[in-house]
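As a warm-up, study this chain.
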Amino acid sequence: MANDDNSANDYIAVRAKEDGVSIIGLTRGKDTRFHHTEKLDKGEVYIAQFTENTSAMKIRGDADIYTKHGIVKSGE
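Now compare it with the structure written out below.
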């Protein structure tokens, strides 16, 4: 099923600046739930896409998050 909402197809890239950075994907819908987790070590990069199932991502640790809106720094 195609989604006309372009934000559902947005990508982010996360670059870990320390070992143990966590990325947690959260579901879309009536009940928000965790559906995916990743752990990154320093220097690793993770590219993720918002989909019909993924509405949010929680990032813990020192990382740079690259979006179409600019760079966000977590863990500072």
